[in-house]
## 1
Amino acid sequence: MTQRLSLAGFTAEYVMDIEELDEQHRTFFTLLAKLATSVPDMYRPLDDEEADAVIDVLNELRDYAMLHFRTEEGYMQEIGYPGLEKQKREHNRFITDVIRMEGELLNGTVMPAIKLHNFMHDWYRDHILTLDKPFGQTYNKIKV
Ligand SMILES: [Fe+2]
Ligand SMILES: [Fe+2]
């Protein structure tokens, strides 16, 4: 499992060659690492105090994701990117899912932090590789 966590950061394969967006993706993964340090054990179900600490990190991650999505959608609007609506749907779904998980924690649903960590990590990885990178290619073809 240690190995799984060491793989969780930003990697070169995520680079889409739009500097501001790459930087935001990198920052998201840096913030995500805070989830691991906010609790003594990522794999143990959270107690109430730990759940509060995790909710604080989730709020920060959600705020940052919203800032990033707005920025990214702005780049898409700039070139009239046809994939914009699909991106918006996926971005909104991510925010909705994070809000739902925050609600579950607030309502006392018992879960380990790793579940939240892996959901966000895997969503970002898959989203960058399958949707953001193709946009980066299109954007750079038009802008170069
Ligand atoms: Fe995106
Ligand atoms: Fe993105």
Note: The CA atoms of residues 4 and 77 lie 36 Å apart.
## 2
Amino acid sequence: MSSLHIVTATPALLADDRSRAAYSEGAGIYRILPRAVAVPGSVAELTALVRWAADTRTPLVPRGAGSGMAGGNVGRGVIVDLSQGFHALTVDPARRLARAGASVTWAEINAAARGLGLRLPPDPSSGAFATSGGMVSTNAAGPRSLRYGSVRQWIESLEIVDASGEPRTVHRGGGAGPWHPAPDTRHLVDGHFPRTRKNSSGYALDAFAESGDELDLLIGSEGTLAFITQIEWRLEPILPDVAGVALGFGELEALSDAVPYLLALNPSAVELLDRTILSFVEEAGVALPAGLACLLLVEFERETAMAARGVVGDAVRGLKHLTAHVETAVDRPGLERLWKVRTLASPALARLSETRRSLQVIEDGCVPIERLGEYVAGVRGAADRCGVQVVLFGHAGDGHVHVNTLPDVTRPGWEDGVSALFDAVTALQVRLGGTPSGEHGDGRLRAGLLERVFGAQVMALFRQVKRAYDPGEVLNPGVILPAADWAPLVDLKVGAAATPIADDIAARLRQLERTASWATPKTSLADSPGT
Ligand SMILES: Cc1cc2nc3c(=O)[nH]c(=O)nc-3n(C[C@H](O)[C@H](O)[C@H](O)COP(=O)(O)OP(=O)(O)OC[C@H]3O[C@@H](n4cnc5c(N)ncnc54)[C@H](O)[C@@H]3O)c2cc1C
């Protein structure tokens, strides 16, 4: 007699120490040794793996390039690397759609679409390596999200493998899926969700309430509800003309007037760099005028060159009384030169010395745009009080600022200052009606903050969503919903308490971080030196 429930065979796993070490870190602050690693090459292999995990209650950690900052791509379960086996990509210019496997990067999509005059408008700075699966799972965004929103708006359908190992397709307009909220849920969500221009924290109950589509729950779910194997991206025509301006200010407070003025001119990006990060960029060889407190990089896309140049002129004239430095660009190559300062920012931080590490702890806060000045001043004040140096940069036009801490990790007790700052900045975000994550997601880092941000009732809804999709808690446990022993500043990749791994792999992981080479297949890091 045959059984209806066949226990699946153990899948091929890499369980040796070197492979586990190669996947113990992503971008961000953690080093956690996984139990093993799997690199499925097809939906069939992934399906078999997930069925085995469901049968054996083995936690799985979905993973793309590993460039996510919040620790959703590392964990003690089996890491499932989807960056290598899902590379199919087709572009349909007539329907303005790209169909991309989970491993396909933003850069690959745009390279295929560009010749057809099309693009995927949200532009994560990590586009060279961020995978389609990773972007969907974090609801990624970029400088141009100011005008085009996060990736959420650009997803037509997802092919997923659910927590029981069943593959299926989820379409925009396809309905609610397995979670059926109570009728009063909308009211609760409306009252408790941040009113920010961007949010990648929690499950997107606000977008779900609006659309009734489970697609909106899956987008930004950080590998906790399903594996994503294929994405249908909506594309749009590239606007022909672009111009921009770099505006330097002597005081950070000028942002309170300058940013709303610029937003009224309908820019496609307004990016901020503060004086600390400017000093690192200068060390990397970019000449800037002395005495700037911050720089705003502004981009305007228009239908004609005249319109693009005209609006740059409006911006320069309108902010003349506030600016200490102005440099304009009237075409795309000029703009790229102007933006070099922005593209050098993250690598400059990653290259800091081993004693002064750039750590992404309070790194992704977003507040209502009218509270931006208060937020920036509040973060600076809290950092001074906690004795932690910080750099600020990011998407000022969205009220969204990346803040990296720069502690001396060789100084005993450095974690106390960072921990106090984490707490103070979270309180500030909550007070200002903000979110702890504008685009990177909660991961393990922020999971334990969500009750403070959304309140106990919304937290209960998040748990309902998780139970509806993953009752066995196989998919990325501890991400979005915190583990019972949540402790955000343990399992760090820096400091004396870091879990030991082979020196050569630790050095390769560090090099990968310093050079932003996240596209490197991580299996290759496990190769012995010289092979
Ligand atoms: C230098 C640098 C700059 C960055 N700039 C930006 C930026 O401008 N905007 C931005 O939004 N982010 C940025 N990031 C963060 C990061 O690149 C994005 O979060 C990106 O979307 C992550 O993609 P990934 O393929 O690396 O995913 P990973 O880091 O591997 O995973 C991220 C999360 O998604 C889940 N996941 C990944 N793939 C799948 C899948 N196929 N199915 C289910 N779950 C999955 C993981 O479990 C994890 O929780 C930056 C990072 C770096 C290092």
Note: The chain has a mean pLDDT of 94.
